[in-house]
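Lab channel / #folding
Pinned by the channel admin:
"Please post every new chain as: sequence first, then the structure tokens as a reply. Keep commentary short and put observations after the output so the thread stays searchable."

First post following the new format, from NK:
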Amino acid sequence: MKYIVPEYFKHFKCKCGDCRHSCCEGWPVRISMKEYYRLIGINCSKKLRSRLDCALKICPKPDEVSYAEISTNWNGFCMLHREDGLCSLQMELGDSVQPEICQIYPRRLVQLSEINLCSCSNSCEAVVELLIALKSPMQFEISDISIKPKFKVKVPKHQLEDCKNAISILQDRTRSLPERLFTLGNCLNGYEWCSKGTKDLFLAYQFLYSLDKFYENNRSVSDYCRSAEQYFCIERKDTLTTEDLMLISEKHAFASQYMDIILPEWQEIIEQLLVNHMFYSNFPNSENLDSDNDAYLSLVIIYSFIRINLLGFMFNKTNKNLLIDFLAAMFRLIDHSYFDYATVKLIKGMNNSVQDLVTQLLRV
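Reply from TO:
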């Protein structure tokens, strides 16, 4: 079966027990009704049966596709994970016994009339490692692979062209990444680079701080958000004063200079992550959003959310694994939740011009 895939795809391989943070860490895995009853009745050892009985839980509002979930334990790990990080179901009964999502993820498959698309989520640290190693703008190729899932996301062919055009704008390295994002917004929605009301970034800081507070109890990103808040000296604050915003501005400028020194390729890294996310989510035709405008707002929020927390978390750090862990954790939140829907709704609910806020967010 032929697929259009990103060039890194042929090199992707699950790290299994060697993974520092599983891509499902902190997130329950949804399974279908058919898979639930198959696992309930499967012939296995008493030890695995005990794990399955504790792990399988019917959803509050079950349907045929999302009927049940494999729950997490007290520290956020899948209840079928062994201490060595391997899946107890897989190790005892083989790959084919796992739920389809566990066999396929972090891959995602999209079906077109003539050809299929396949890519991987940035929530997987192995994928992030491949993207960081990729120095030139990401290329796409046709590959013949054997993945044949039971469920596929079906989209019209023209949506692939929309995604390709958006990606080509974001890969134009003759301009800075924020400039490319402004150009993309202008092409999609008529946004323009605006200087009015942007002498400071106070709107952006307040919005991004509200996101950090909103997700501060989320296992994937809480430690990173708190670390960033500590750097900006705003930890445990309910609201930001003018003095707080002035201090954030000073520390933001200092951290930006530091980032340019220790990670001069930061724009290329975030570009690869955004491009991969756009292809993975079929941008701008998101399943969770109503319009191209909402998809663009979501992309801007993702960029600025990652950028501000990266500045705070990585200050005085140079460990590459910490960078990879941070980026994968951010996308475990972005890809495994309704982050796009919730944050776009939040930005629209603010009593400020959306265009002014977008302009500030892209200058973070």
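NK: The longest strand covers residues 2-6.
TO: also worth noting, The longest helix spans residues 292-313.
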